[in-house]
Amino acid sequence: MKKLLLSIVLFLFSSSLFAQIDITGGMGITYVNNASLTDYLNIFFPSDSELNTFSSTVEFFIETDYSLNKNYQIGLEYVYQLFSYNTSYGGGVAYALSYSHHKPSFLAYYVISGTGYKFKFGGGLGLRFISLSEKILTTADYSATGFGVLLKAQGHTSLGGNVYLNLGVDLKYDFPGEPKMGDRYIVDNTIDENINLNSLSAGVKIGISYFFD
What we know:
mainly beta, 12 strands
């Protein structure tokens, strides 16, 4: 029992020696592969050029990480992703689809750091929330809720003091499922299935970090 208590005290003491909070915010470009939505848009509402397998979206993020010790951190991240698509059909009738994707995640990192730099390698998981609007003469609003997992790497380099430039890349699998409005779904009639917003994405981000010692 004494050995257990001693181990706990030593762990807490060693953790406090490296106690540090990192706050990072920024934006980036993410390329998203969503086969179900892409097929639906290309078939029913084609534009002058088809959507590619990967579509570009804009993401904004904020993240807070806490150091457990010299080499390990845990954190929370919130990402806000935007996508929009506009075209016309049937002799000039306007069509528009857009969605906002909210991605809160719990993160865990392995950290390599030194004077003026810090590298983080890790991953995480979290809930996923999507709000989607589709305009075909009138606007219909849909929503979807699910989960996602990600792998992530970041590099921080000092700009002076506790301020750092952050560059990062990530790979995400998101499974928000089928968007719906009440009992109504968006249906791909060519395969008689509801569309889903499940996706694979890869992104590059840049931001500013502040390290609280």
